Amino acid sequence: MVDIIKNSIGACINLCRPYERPALSKGFLLPEAPARLPSFHTCVGANEERLTPKWYKEHGIELVLGSRVKSVDVRRKTLLTGSGETISYKVLIIATGARALKLEEFGVKGSDSENVCYLRDLADANRLVNLMESCSGGNAIVIGGGYIGMECAASLVINRMSVTMVFPEEHCMARLFTPKIASFYEEFYKSKGVKFVKGTILSSFDIDSNGKVTAVNLRDGSSLPADTVVVGIGIRPNTSLFEGQLTLEKGGIKVNGKMQSSNSSVYAVGDVATFPVKVFGESRRLEHVDSARKSARHAVGAIMEGNQAGEFDYLPFFYSRVFTLSWQFYGDNAGDVVHFGDFSGGTFGAYWVRNGHLVGSFLEGGTKEEYEAIAKATRLKPAVEDLAELERQGLGFAV
Ligand code: NAD
């Protein structure tokens, strides 16, 4: 999405009306009482005003839908749309997000087969729902052990499919989980019938004469029969409109603490923005809805307040809900790790300590107050001298 603010009237240029994406890999996929449109407008998850078409109208925001921006000239402050219209702006907010990484980038053909699904937008989610309905009881292969892989595997099981997850790492959610945390979730998934094939990746698909994938062939030489394949192997930020015009860093558009890019009239927010993150001590791109919402809010504040605006001080936050489980993470998962709590199915978690200070916390099965407590403790970065004592105190250290 590209937002423009022209002559103090806002315009939002997009292919379709903005909506919340987090539901797509969670409630949207449930066979019973699914969370689907029209009940998930933008901001539903943040318990803020629901951004219905009426809302945009009432707030003087023109929604320009079905329109793709073909090129941008940041020096002239103009956008060129697919229909040949030139739009000029005073301030531009880039919220183009990211796209799902395709298997073709790893030399595997078959992404366009009718039973291979990615999950990035509403059309993908609708396709997956249809596939689950038509293949109920069949074999689903999930490629990737990250957020999409874990959340979709849970939904596929709930939709009565037989699920196998394939990923190259030694354990799931390798970007965030410790082996001990991952082991808990993997055992839970196994108890629901999910099989794990770890330490390998797929090398090819067997595709029948109707263009349907019938098996997934792995690099280790094995082959898995497949009725449905779900691929969640990461994302790539959509920066191409701005390459050569704005400074890029770590795959995203580099911005300062006001979310302002190397061109002072252009701001970037969400998955596409690489911004300074205090707890990391460096700039990073964060892929999460909470960061997207808060960075957008901060950019708008900075545009309105000009030089008075403060720096974005964001504490990284991630969460997930699968089956009856639910976890939250705050801060950075770097340094020494200390686990605590009941890993046999109760409330448990972990702290990360770097340079003598708490920098990150993870909690599964917490209450609202407990999640708030670990968030607050992580933000305060208290000194931790004795890791054994931290382990002994466990959640009590934060609450
Ligand atoms: P991810 O980065 O979380 O996980 C990618 C996974 O794919 C990793 O396990 C990786 O090792 C694996 N992988 C990479 N190449 C592979 C290959 N060739 N074969 C097999 N496995 C391979 O990305 P994702 O799960 O695709 O999620 C996409 C985006 O959606 C992310 O930005 C994520 O943050 C977001 N998302 C977040 C949530 C949440 O926060 N709860 C939920 C869904 C999606």
Automatic annotation (TrEMBL):
Residues 18-296 form the FAD/NAD(P)-binding domain. Keywords: FAD, Flavoprotein, NAD, Oxidoreductase, Redox-active center. InterPro entries: FAD-oxidoreductase/Apoptosis, FAD/NAD-bd_sf, FAD/NAD-binding_dom, FAD/NAD-linked_Rdtase_dimer_sf, MDHAR3-like_C. Its EC number is 1.6.5.4. GO terms for molecular function: monodehydroascorbate reductase (NADH) activity. One of its GO terms (cellular component) is cytoplasm. Signal peptide: none annotated. It is an enzyme of class 1 (oxidoreductase). It holds the Pfam family Pyr_redox_2. Residues 315-398 form the Monodehydroascorbate reductase 3-like C-terminal domain. Its cofactor is FAD. Coiled coil: none annotated. Belongs to the FAD-dependent oxidoreductase family. This is monodehydroascorbate reductase (NADH). It comes from Prunus yedoensis var. nudiflora.
